[in-house]
Design brief:
The relative contact order is 0.17. This protein is mainly alpha-helical. Strand 2 and strand 3 form a beta hairpin.
């Protein structure tokens, strides 16, 4: 994500990173007690959910691509190509789908070759975001993780990249950013650290 220690962590990157946190569903938000261990010391760790969510560790192990995060874009396009983002959104909505089904839906909006959709979905399967099984003459695609789990993977990857590249400087800048832009989150962080130290 960053080329080296000479790179600068700008406000945009931090804003986008915190934005991912803010956009998480309520049950996955870092300010929720079940994910306190993730906040501790700003050290992102793999969290095991007890209700309704498979182990994040197993989900992450299926991803076979390095995160490419572009803070200049919005939503899924920050980490996926434009068509990849559309396809993933549709498969999440449907739960499972064939190439023909996804192509039929996308073709209502614009002209798009069937082979383009087929290649995109095969690439998403290669990356580990989709799993495919043969059904007759076609492949049936299913997501390997929910949208909420995908968001957590992005958070884990972004924060891990920042810490691996900048170490304590990333922590200091994050605290500085929160104090300036998100004081309510900084206050909660103090509360969590105090509770952990008790």
């Amino acid at each position: 994500m960053f080329s080296g220690k000479g790179d600068y962590i700008g406000d945009t990157q931090l804003r986008q990173m915190v934005g991912w946190i803010s956009d998480c569903p309520a049950d996955l938000h870092p300010c929720n007690p079940p994910v306190t261990s993730w906040v501790r010391g700003f050290r992102p760790t793999i969290v095991h959910w007890s209700v309704g969510i498979c182990r994040q560790e197993e989900k992450m192990s299926e991803i076979r691509t390095r995160l490419q995060f572009d803070p200049r874009k919005q939503g899924l396009s920050q980490v996926l190509g434009p068509l990849e983002a559309e396809v993933m959104w549709l498969v999440w909505q449907q739960g499972q789908a064939t190439v023909r089904q996804i192509h039929r839906f996308l073709s209502r909006r614009r002209e798009l070759a069937y082979t383009t959709v087929m290649t995109t979905m095969a690439r998403l399967a290669t990356k580990g975001f989709l799993r495919r099984t043969r059904r007759g003459m076609a492949y049936l695609y299913r997501p390997t993780m929910t949208r909420a789990e995908f968001d957590r993977w992005v958070l884990h990857s972004v924060l891990s990249g920042l810490l691996e590249t900048f170490d304590k400087e990333a922590v200091e800048y994050l605290v500085e950013y929160l104090s300036r832009e998100r004081p309510e989150h900084l206050e909660y962080l103090r509360h969590v650290l105090t509770r952990q130290a008790a």
